[in-house]
Amino acid sequence: MNSSLPVRDRLGRPLESLRLSVTDRCNLRCLYCMPEEDYIWLPREELLSFEELARLVEIFTGLGVSRVRLTGGEPLLRQNLDRLVALLAQNSRVEDLALTTNGILFSDQADALKRAGLGRVTISLDTLRPARFRQMTRRDEHHRVLSAFDAARRAGFTGTKADAVIVRGENDDEIADLIEFGRANGAEVRFIEYMDVLGATKWSMAKVVSRSEILQHLERRYGKITPAGEASSAPATRFLLPDGTVFGIIASTTAPFCRTCDRSRITADGFWYRCLYATDGTDLRKLVRGGAGSSSASRASADADADAEIARVIEEAWRGREDRGAEERAAGSRREAFIRIEELRRDPHLEMHTRGG
Ligand code: SAM
Predict the structure, then answer these.
(1) Which of 194, 195, 242, 236 is nearest to 218 (CA)?
(2) Three-class secondary structure of residue 165 per DSSP
(3) How much distance in Å is there from the Cα of 195 to the middle of ligand 1?
(4) pLDDT per position as a tens digit, 284-338
């Protein structure tokens, strides 16, 4: 690889990790993510095709990206997602190809995704109790989420993670139970602090269960917890229980990690955001779809020119990146939901489920 790669931003952060939101639609209505009844969906014709997504990933990997995560919305609602996985798996610069899913549709697709070249899967699991699942997600398919872990193991996935957003008064009494579930099912549990991102219109600081509270809770149950002590750009800080069980905490709200953030996100319709809290993105779809010639030869050369231009736009934007959204939110004095529902209705790009978590 070119030694000037990955491209770095103004704070020296590399362009390494890319999240592709493949759809803004979701089959759950989690209280911390999509708590409203109605949403404005992206027009279908504006969604990037798998070929367009693969082409963008090719451009990004040419600038240093080596980790790609498929997310959404619920990514498995996108038909034939294994076809996109297969296209991305052909890109030898993608060293880590992962999926974040709520698990509901996973069991039926696990084998096909594995065969297509998916490397790892993270399954969101906030509760072990079916009635509570219904309350937290307004849907009734808890058993399918639980069986997704089994399906992942049977399909041959390793390194599976179980991500739980802990919300005070909702599931904060299940922290140790989730650890036990992870242990029994070969998944590393990661607790996520409730964030005041975008679609989280019901957020309040009082509902956030902090990393230190989670640690205290687990120490009371298991005894001394030690930090795993690795330096990494991963959002989770990892810890060890006395018996060696590893778990992680993503403390985006109380201890943001903007200084090491190498992540950026593409929405299903091709807007590129360099921070989860950014309100401005770059319209890559316009660039991807613009300017192809009419004959196949002129189309190929127009595509090559367009790719070089897209790479230039991305590189310039990343070099100018200064975003530290979560840190700025944490430093603010009065914290409430970041974006009001009226603004979200005007611009669905501001939603977490559009942008990809
Ligand atoms: N549908 C998929 C899923 O459920 O994993 C992928 C998309 S979802 C937006 C990605 C992750 O973002 C999930 O683990 C979800 O729990 C997390 N998330 C959504 N809203 C959040 C919030 N307000 N605070 C913290 N995490 C949140």
Answers:
(1) 242
(2) strand
(3) 10
(4) 999 999 854 556 777 778 888 899 999 999 999 999 999 898 888 887 766 666 6
Segments of 51-160 assigned E as strands = 67-71, 96-101, 120-124
Task: For residues 122 and 148, give the distance between their C-alpha atoms in angstroms, rounded to a whole number.
Answer: 10
Phi and psi, residue 346, nearest 5°: -70, -35
pLDDT at 2 over 70: no
Q: Whose CA is nearest to atom 21 of ligand 1?
A: 33
Question: Does the C-beta of 74 come closer than 6 Å to ligand 1?
Answer: yes
In the predicted structure, residue 167 carries a pLDDT above the cut 60: yes
Q: If we measure between CA atoms, which residue out of 58, 51, 56, 24 comes closest to residue 40?
A: 24
Measured torsion, CA atoms of residues 10, 16, 21, 22, in degrees rounded to the nearest 10? 140
Mean pLDDT of 234-246: 93
Q: Nearest CA to 160 among 146, 177, 142? A: 146
Q: Tokens 């921070």 — which residue?
A: 275
The answer, yes or no, to whether any atom of ligand 1 lies below 6 A from the CB of 164, is no
Beta strands in 72-187 (DSSP E): 96-101, 120-124, 161-166
**The one-letter amino acid at 92:** S
Nearest to 165, CA basis, from 191, 187, 142: 191
The pLDDT score that the predictor gives to residue 343 is: 72
